[in-house]
Design a protein that fits this description.
Elements (H helix, E strand, L loop, with lengths): L11 H11 L12 E4 L10 E4 L3 E5 L5 E8 L24 H13 L3 H8 L14 E7 L12 E9 L4 E8 L2 E10 L4 E19 L5 E6 L3 E7 L3 E2 L11 E2 L7 E10 L3 E7 L8 E20 L15 H32 L3 E3 L5 H4 L3 H10 L5 H18 L25 E2 L3 H5 L2 H4 L3 H26 L10 E2 L15 H4 L4 H16 L2 H21 E5 L6 E5 L9 E2 L5 E2 L6 H21 L3 H10 L22 E2 L25 H14 L5 H13 L3 H11 L18 E2 L5 E2 L6 H14 E3 L5 E3 L10 E7 L5 E7 L2 E7 L1
Antiparallel strand pairs: 1-6, 2-3, 3-4, 4-5, 5-9, 6-7, 7-8, 8-9, 9-16, 10-11, 11-14, 12-13, 14-16, 15-16, 17-29, 18-19, 20-21, 22-23, 22-24, 25-26, 27-28, 29-30, 30-31
């Protein structure tokens, strides 16, 4: 085996940073090669390696006899532009009584009739989100090599890897003493997935494309092109919605269209049309046949008819056929070397900005495959700082790979989904998960990825204005509920059957819009803030009009609260034993409203000309009900001092003020910080992947280094693939063999939360210029360094430390 195959390619961005540091005084940071390595092919999705260019991507299995790539296009969703109250589900009368029901809910809550209020909440529910769809599968079926005696040639020395420094997956295997290698990457500049297969001896293979929808057809042409074209459902229901009939509705005149083209070029072999039987198929399908090749290059391109959240993809869609044909022609003309050079220049300029060194791992451990390292990290509790640094940089890699399409942010699984009925529709869940996806964007020097989310907020603000009017009777601003999708739906979900515990939460706009002010703190770009400010102001106006007055029974003061209210996905227990989610004045609501109003006021002062809005918001802020503690010393989640139905619940929304908010810290609010710490203590270690990622950040901001590190290790607990049923199957929240986050199932938010948490352990910054160096440095990282991370003052930081103390620090 040629070991050089698995060494990372030079990263131009890394070399540039090193050159800049060497030419000027200050700390320098070295970084181990960022490579995920394995010694067997992937059998399951949770072992496959993800590649992506921010729009199209693949989960790469790298098999020996059969190679498989699960394909995705981030714009391929079921559905059509959201039509608000004219949506086909809403046309049945769903949600017609929404605004009129709100006074009845408030009256029931005033009478402390929580059961009635909860039941009435269902009248304030609309339709569900649409579903993110897989693009299909590329199969490469190799002919079996045989010895002169006719026996199969044995395979040995298998290796596969994902090099984060170059965003290239590589696989290699020895077949009868001869090497076959494959490289895979997704180029953003050329919008193509490229696969190059080299072999020391000629090989033959069959190439096939498949799609799980019944409405796709494949054709093969003599010029070595395989074409797959089809359309997805114009409407879909989530798997958890109890219903009769079809969950996906198809119509040849409706829905998003797609066209996938695979161009195959062999330097010395032949590529001709053929037919083959696909796995599970009964009739032959068109395919390509490769004969006698030692170097085969595949160019895979795709285009959909998606043309924006407000354009019908069937009647107003993009010319996806022409787009795909033009792109494949251009890629063939440019060739492998030209595409590779453009890809490396583009990708390394982003990824190479940040380097991290958390210390050295024992050489005998570092030499092991990544999945074995993860299992030992879990079972033997080995020290492995290189694995932790790899996990951090993997988060940055995943964000670059899944967030480069304006108005289409990374979804619940980023970019990578194999299922027609994906978990939770693979949508945008905005009561934490979409926000968590973007926590590392600014600090980890990837503002271009964050811009994708901000452009999406403009879409939400348009549909959200109709939601505010129809469901809440509020004429100012905009609102967003629990879920959204590529069509920027904002209504509360449930179709009058959803549990209000999750279905009726309506402060997604308030939470998401705080990213607008956060963005400005990092960039100090006033022009951009001016463009984005109407979105932030609109969310704040909805909050102001949603508030109601209530006299505090403990103090007698008249305060502003929300009614009705929920604390996302959690439930309380009243003294008389009632269990439910609907109440008034949940702490999480008020924390988010306070954060939104404060950010909007700060932004308004920078933008100028918003004196009336500033006066209104500033008058409301001191009247918002403040924090309380409960009988256990926790930060109170409910208006009254009630018990939690689940004391160890995965959500901790009432702690938003610790992180990502800026309301609670050990320096400024020590008593509240202690109450927040007590809350996390009782919540415990056992939780889902994304929740563990969130807790790492909060514990870091509470300056609990041991707790943050313990939670990070919990996040990195080995979980076996979902479909694996062996005797050593591992379930629960943690990390899969390919280092993707296990909720479980897979959700990408835990990867991004963990990436952010590691940074927050090392460096924190505030709007006023405060920078905390090593605020939660664990004893396990006694020396190390980081370079390229950014602060809210718009500075880029390089820092090294030894024996737990900063040895060099530079801002520029």
């Amino acid at each position: 085996m040629n070991d050089s195959l698995f060494r990372p390619l030079p990263a131009a961005g890394t070399f540039l940073l090193a050159a800049l540091l060497s030419c000027s005084p200050g700390p320098q940071v070295t970084q181990d090669p960022m490579v995920l390595r394995y010694d067997k092919p992937a059998d399951y999705f949770e072992e496959a390696l993800p590649i992506g260019n921010g729009r199209i991507g693949a989960s790469v299995y790298s098999g020996i006899g059969t190679d498989r790539l699960s394909l995705n296009d981030i714009t391929l969703w079921t559905g059509e532009p959201d039509r608000g109250k004219d949506h086909p589900d809403i046309a049945r009368g769903i949600g017609d009584e929404a605004a009129a029901t709100l006074p009845l809910i408030r009256e029931a809550l005033e009478r402390e009739d929580y059961a009635l209020a909860n039941e009435l909440q269902k009248k304030v529910q609309g339709h569900f989100s649409e579903s993110y769809q897989p693009l299909g599968t590329l199969l490469i079926q190799y002919d079996t090599l045989r010895t002169p005696a006719g026996a199969p040639v044995p395979a040995s020395g298998y290796r596969r890897s994902l090099d984060l420094d170059s965003a290239i997956v590589r696989a290699g295997v020895m077949l009868g003493g001869q090497e076959r290698t494959t490289e895979y990457f997704a180029s953003a500049p050329d919008s193509v997935i490229v696969i190059r297969i080299r072999s020391a001896q000629p090989f033959s293979a069959t190439l096939a494309l498949t799609h799980p929808t019944p409405h796709a057809r494949v054709t093969a042409t003599a010029d070595g092109t395989l074409s797959q074209e089809g359309y997805v459902a114009y409407h879909a229901y989530p798997s958890y919605y109890r219903m009769e009939g079809e969950r996906r509705l198809y119509d040849p005149a409706r829905g998003t269209r797609f066209r996938t083209l695979l161009g195959a070029t062999s330097e010395d072999g032949t590529v001709t049309p053929t037919q083959c039987l696909l796995p599970g198929g009964q009739t032959p399908a068109d395919a390509l046949r490769v004969e006698g090749s030692t170097c085969l290059t595949l160019y895979l391109v795709n285009a959909t008819s998606f043309n924006g959240f407000d354009k019908d993809p069937a009647r107003e869609g993009k010319d996806y056929r022409a787009l795909s044909e033009r792109n494949l022609r251009r890629c063939r003309e440019k060739g492998y070397d030209g595409i590779l050079a453009s890809h490396l220049a583009d990708y390394t300029a982003l990824f190479g900005r940040v380097k991290l060194n958390l210390g050295e791992t024992a050489p005998e451990v570092a030499a092991l495959p990544t999945d074995q390292q993860l299992r030992r990290y879990t079972d033997l509790e080995e020290r492995n700082p290189q694995l932790e640094a790899l996990y951090y940089q993997y988060g940055r890699y995943l964000l670059i790979a899944s967030s480069r399409t304006p108005g289409v942010p990374a979804n619940l699984q980023g970019l990578w989904n194999e299922r027609l009925d994906p978990p939770w529709s693979c949508n945008y869940t905005v009561n934490i998960n979409l926000e968590e996806n973007y926590w590392p964007a600014e600090t980890a020097a990837l503002p271009e990825m964050h811009a994708v989310l901000l452009s999406y907020l403009h879409n939400l603000s348009r549909t959200g204005a109709a939601t505010a009017r129809h469901y809440y009777g509020i004429g100012r601003g905009w609102a967003c509920g629990h879920n959204s999708d590529i069509w920027a739906m904002t209504c509360p979900v449930g179709l009058e059957t959803g549990d209000p515990m999750w279905a009726n939460w309506n402060l997604g706009g308030a939470w998401l819009s705080t990213d607008i002010w956060e963005r400005y703190l990092f960039t100090r770009d006033r022009d951009e803030l001016v463009r984005n400010f109407p979105v932030l102001k609109g969310a704040a106006l909805f909050c102001l009009d949603a508030l109601v007055e209530k006299q505090d029974p403990e103090t007698g003061e008249t305060e502003l609260i929300t009614s009705p209210s929920t604390s996302p996905e959690n439930a309380f227990v009243t003294p008389d034993g009632y269990v439910g989610p609907t109440l008034y004045g949940a702490t999480a609501d008020l924390v988010l409203i306070r954060e939104c109003l404060q950010d909007a006021v700060c932004a308004a002062r920078v933008v100028g000309g918003e004196e009336a809005f500033i006066r209104e918001a500033e008058a409301a802020l001191p009247r918002l009900r403040g924090y309380r503690t409960d009988h256990e010393g926790k930060l109170r989640e409910w208006y009254h001092d009630w018990a939690d139905q689940d004391p160890h619940h995965r959500h901790q929304s009432h702690l938003v003020g610790v992180f990502p908010g800026h309301q609670i810290s050990p320096e400024t609010t020590p008593e509240l910080a202690r109450a927040a710490a007590r809350t996390l203590e009782i919540r415990g270690l056992e939780t889902t992947g994304w929740s563990a990622g969130w807790r790492v950040n909060m514990l870091a901001h509470l300056q609990d280094a041991d707790g943050a590190y313990r939670m990070l290790r919990r996040l990195l607990r080995y979980v076996s693939p979902d479909a694996y049923r062996g005797p050593d199957a591992r379930r629960g929240g943690g990390t899969y063999p390919n280092l993707l986050d296990a909720h479980s199932p897979f959700q990408i938010d835990g990867n991004f939360g963990g990436c952010s948490g590691i940074m927050e352990m090392l460096l924190q910054s505030e709007a006023d210029g405060t920078v905390r160096k090593l605020p939660a440095l664990p004893a396990q990282w006694p020396e190390g360094g980081i370079s390229g991370i950014r602060t809210r003052g718009g500075k880029t930081v390089t820092m090294t430390w030894r024996d737990g103390r900063v040895t060099a620090y530079r801002e520029k």
